[in-house]
């Protein structure tokens, strides 16, 4: 696994770095970012929070705007931010911002023309952690979080792999993609018309059926323009009640879908994950 | 003075807002951003920190990337971020990133074709504060800060108007534009060939000659690619020694010219300003 360093910036005593590598899972060159806290200087292996971004984002949005490095530097947590889809001139795309590049939805596509590259579920669950754990001074303790499409990704990945993640959190997740326009468009394209195959990528369906639990925190802005039509946190809440899932869901008055919301509450997410990451 | 609200985002209990207005000083439509802390909800008039950004920036860079809202919300300080130049199709421009749009250098241009619009010094010192103080629940207590070109702007504006600002701070300022390529290019264009007219816009010259003092804080990254050729903090340090200017200048190992540096140390700048803004 070759990996190329693209940039380094010192940040809160630690280091923000961008890398590119050839992904076997996605059949293309991928970029990701990692924040390494100052703790690595004394030989510590630190746990890792994976952050999955939303539609149209790259590895940069969260690192630029969330203000997470300050708290990660205090708590001794690395943060890895992958891109949101495969990239490259030969990668299938769509004119919409909500399908194709920038919109991988963290699924393994089964349909043409998407299936050759759009295997973001496997990339995030397997290839990227293997690469990160082989390359950087990190432990095998992992948490996962995300925003919007990435909140959907974080919740579904954590619930399908409860042995791999200590905790999961999301801002404004697409909570029930089977029943919203974003989900229906993307899943129809990537997974085909058989809606039975969509269920393993639906956070509310997975939460309703869950028997193994990953502690979960979800924050949602009450003034989010996408709340009613696309995000549907009430489906997640209902599913958690049905299965007894340990979900803390907070609705914050006046906040929208932007990074102004995320930055206001990211500290709580990092402290939530730190509590579980620090358990043996 | 008409002013149009363009956006609102709740942030750390306060509000980030963008506005546009027709500037008489600049003869064009200008956009600026303001962060209003939660304290305004109980009828308080809060003091204002003006933030001047660097080359190529708009009102958005600082608000997106610096992470200042968290501390401003705690301390009860509003932050105003103007654009870095006049804007519009009829505004003179240059192919370079370091002259024309995005590169106003906070001076009053005297030379064609710049002088009709490029009056950023007057805009920041007079028109913008008048508009802000007439529109928002703010007091007439002002501090000023900036980055790179905006650090130059903040230092020169504070030193030429010590009665208007309680304190000044800068990240990585262009400290001696008379003697660096960025300054020589911009001042030749905006101010003409007579270098005597440049001196009133040179922070080191002003600091060396100062008899009235505004407490000043300057932070500089030691791994900043522009340090030696463009920024020259040693000129500012030397000037402060000569006049006895109250300048605290810090050099931070490993940090570069980016917002990763600014976000790492912005808390100290806000607490520095709060100390002076809270004095009667």
TrEMBL record, chains A, B:
Q: Where are the transmembrane segments?
A: none
- Which Pfam families does the UniProt record give? Esterase (PF00756)
Q: Which InterPro entries does this one have?
A: AB_hydrolase_fold, Esterase-like, S-formylglutathione_hydrol
What is one GO cellular-component annotation here? cytosol
Question: What is this enzyme's class at the first EC digit?
Answer: hydrolase
GO BP terms, alphabetized = formaldehyde catabolic process
Catalytic machinery residues: 148 (charge relay system), 224 (charge relay system), 257 (charge relay system)
Name any one GO molecular function.
carboxylic ester hydrolase activity
Q: Which domain of life is it from?
A: Bacteria
What this protein catalyses is: S-formylglutathione + H2O = formate + glutathione + H(+)
Q: What does this protein do?
A: Serine hydrolase involved in the detoxification of formaldehyde.
Instruction: Name the NCBIfam families on file.
Output: fghA_ester_D
Return the similarity comment.
Belongs to the esterase D family.
Name of the protein in question: S-formylglutathione hydrolase
Q: Which organism is it from?
A: Paraglaciecola mesophila
């Amino acid at each position: 696994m070759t990996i190329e360093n693209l940039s380094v910036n010192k940040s809160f005593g630690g280091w923000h770095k961008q890398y590119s590598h050839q992904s076997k899972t996605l059949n293309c060159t991928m970029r990701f970012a990692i924040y390494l806290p100052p703790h690595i200087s004394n030989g510590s292996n630190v746990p890792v929070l994976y952050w999955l971004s939303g539609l149209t984002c790259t590895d940069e949005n969260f690192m630029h705007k969330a203000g997470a490095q300050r708290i990660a530097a205090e708590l001794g947590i690395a943060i890895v931010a992958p891109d949101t889809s495969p990239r490259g001139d030969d990668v299938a795309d769509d004119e919409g911002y909500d399908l194709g590049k920038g919109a991988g939805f963290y699924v393994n596509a089964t349909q043409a023309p998407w299936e050759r590259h759009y295997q973001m579920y496997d990339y995030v669950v397997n290839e990227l952690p293997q690469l990160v754990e082989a390359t950087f001074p990190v432990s095998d303790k992992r948490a996962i979080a995300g925003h919007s499409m990435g909140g959907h990704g974080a919740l579904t990945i954590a619930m399908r792999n409860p042995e791999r993640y200590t905790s999961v959190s999301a801002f404004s997740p697409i909570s029930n993609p089977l029943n919203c326009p974003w989900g229906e468009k993307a899943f129809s394209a990537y997974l085909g018309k058989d809606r039975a195959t969509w269920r393993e990528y639906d956070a509310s369906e997975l939460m309703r059926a869950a028997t193994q639990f990953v502690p979960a925190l979800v924050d949602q802005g009450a003034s989010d323009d996408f709340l009613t039509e696309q995000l549907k946190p009430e489906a997640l809440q209902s599913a958690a009640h049905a299965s007894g899932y340990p979900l803390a869901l907070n609705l914050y008055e006046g906040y929208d879908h932007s990074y102004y919301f995320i930055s206001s509450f990211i500290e709580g997410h990092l402290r939530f994950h730190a509590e579980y990451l620090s358990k043996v």
